[in-house]
Prior knowledge:
The protein is mainly alpha-helical and 236 residues long. It folds into two domains: 76 residues, Arc Repressor Mutant, subunit A (Orthogonal Bundle); 130 residues, Up-down Bundle (Four Helix Bundle (Hemerythrin (Met), subunit A)), CATH 1.20.120.530. The chain is 60% helix and 3% strand. The protein contains eleven helices and two strands. A two-stranded antiparallel sheet has the order 1-2. A hairpin with a 3-residue loop joins strand 1 and strand 2.
Amino acid sequence: MSLFALVENSDRRIHVxxxxxxxxxxxxxxxxxxxxxxxxTELCExxxxxxxxLRESTKLLSAKGLIESKPKVGTRICxxxxxxxxxxxxxxxxxxxxxxxxxxxxxxxxxKAIEPExxxxxxxxxxxxxxxxxxxxxxxxxxxxxxxxxxxWAINDHLFHQTIFxxxxxxxxxxxxxxxxxxxxxxxxxxxxxxxxxxxxxxAIYDGIMSGxxxxxxxxxKSLLDDENQALAKAS
Length: 236
């Protein structure tokens, strides 16, 4: 049975579909680091695409740090340390995987490293308009939690945290409100299952920011991200 499937007609460009298939095999571990992938002729036949489309797909994968092509050597899978994990398209490919929990657990580690400080900065620098937005999103989160409305919770929790990053007053935090948006929503969708919305922890963050309590907002964020509140924290 072929490792890859024929590319289907869709709105997505052919070379993007090819890149997506190869990326999934790499991210899932089916294709290993430093492993060589089949030659152009084999791949064109497997996908049912032209050499031009295939070369466009390999350029895309190379730009994400997933593969490296060398003349007379072939194309190999790059080491994981070279992968561009914060690239939006890369994150989109991760979401295609059947087993996403290991990536979500690592994403939680990233949140633990940056989010408490973002909350502390927001307590100091949030504008009146941003505080108004936080208030609106927290009220909607409260309603969603009381009604066990997972969809509404996921939407507004995402907007709540996105606003915090924007409210830091530090431009280096801003990309996290954009680049990680898709992954963040996926994380919330998983962590809210079972009715554990952590509303009190979010309220503590909200209260800290709204009152300008820098230390309180930082502590509340650490509490929210504590392993006991995050079902995915121990995923491997």
